[in-house]
Amino acid sequence: MKLQLSLGVASNPRSWPILDGTVQPDGIDLISSVVFPSELFWRQLKFADFDVSEMSFSSLMMARSRGDDRWVGLPVFTTRRFFHTGILARRDSGINSPADLKGRRVGVPEYQQTAALWTRGILQHEFGVAPSDMEFWMERTPDISHAGATGFTPPPGVTIKQIPAEKNIGSMMLSGELEATLLYLREANLVDRSTADLWNHPDIKPVFPDPVVEGIRYFRKTGLYPINHGMVIKREIAEKHPWVVLNLFKAFERANEIADQVRMEQLEYHIASGKVPRELVPELKVPLALHGVRSNRDVLETAAAYSQEQGLTPRLMKLDEIFAPSTMEQ
């Protein structure tokens, strides 16, 4: 069987063995495309371009909650990160801690995107900054946004303003029209339009001066390693050929094992060269980027709770509404 597969260019290296053909799912010939995630998710939500693809977990939950059943989730998680550690602010803004974001003008590429979902949830539950405490400015326009494709409207009490087409987050950060941005994307694609290099600009700084330290603190406290993107397959394919689901899952599992072996080899090298503090070695040797519902239930259910809490989904989404039945015990 031939299937069109698309993964984001920013996908975790754990997916690369699938893209380069090192790992091939049994009985399936994948025709692969690499598309930037922002564009990929819009194309899938709007046009259903690919049979199998990476997908925003937040947008998938929203689509399912609104009755869009074109997609079946696969518990394969291509990217995960401590997203809140990427908040940027102007140096002259007086924003020196998360609490200082209250009452500020804050950029966001897409309000509903999973990275923003996690960042808002962590700001609220770790630092006491609720979404209603900030004034959001969204870069993506309704015609080429995930929000436009899912029918999203701002939840009550939250202010979301549209960045004009002739401007973007980067330009508004540099002009002072925005004081901070929850996250920042500048890679060329059909959806995002910022181009300025904010990370290396003298007027811009990270709100968390040491993102690694904050990521370690958050993980040690919560045990959560936030998931951003998962995978989906067209429901019509999964129902007509149910064997495809687990064959794809097993292939991504094999790719993950290959990548983890490489990671361990790199870790041993860095340990031997003294680049890794000895006290962190036990934690770093624990596999964190695992696929499957069972290994990630706490993270997925936290994201679902944040989605309802933030008004993205009208009710708490259950995982068995999102993922293929045959994968629920994986």
Salient structural properties:
single chain, 330 residues, alpha/beta, D-Maltodextrin-Binding Protein, domain 2, 2 domains, six-stranded mixed sheet, five-stranded mixed sheet, 11 helices, 11 strands
What's this entry about, in short?
This protein is of the alpha/beta class and 330 residues long.
Plain-language structure description:
The chain is an alpha/beta fold. It has two domains: 2-80 and 226-327, D-Maltodextrin-Binding Protein, domain 2 (3-Layer(aba) Sandwich), CATH 3.40.190; 83-221, D-Maltodextrin-Binding Protein, domain 2 (3-Layer(aba) Sandwich), CATH 3.40.190. Helix content is 35%, strand content 17%. It is built from eleven helices and eleven strands. It has helices at residues 16-19, 37-47, 57-65, 114-127, 146-150, 169-175, 211-222, 235-240, 243-272, 281-284, 297-309, and strands at residues 2-8, 29-35, 52-56, 71-80, 88-90, 105-108, 135-138, 159-162, 180-181, 204-206, 227-234. A six-stranded mixed beta sheet has the order 8-7-6-9-5-10, with helices on one face. Strands 2-1-3-11-4 form a five-stranded mixed beta sheet. The longest helix is centred in the last third of the chain and has 30 residues, at 243-272. It starts with a strand and ends in a 21-residue tail after the last helix. The relative contact order is 0.19. The model has no long low-confidence stretch (mean pLDDT 91).
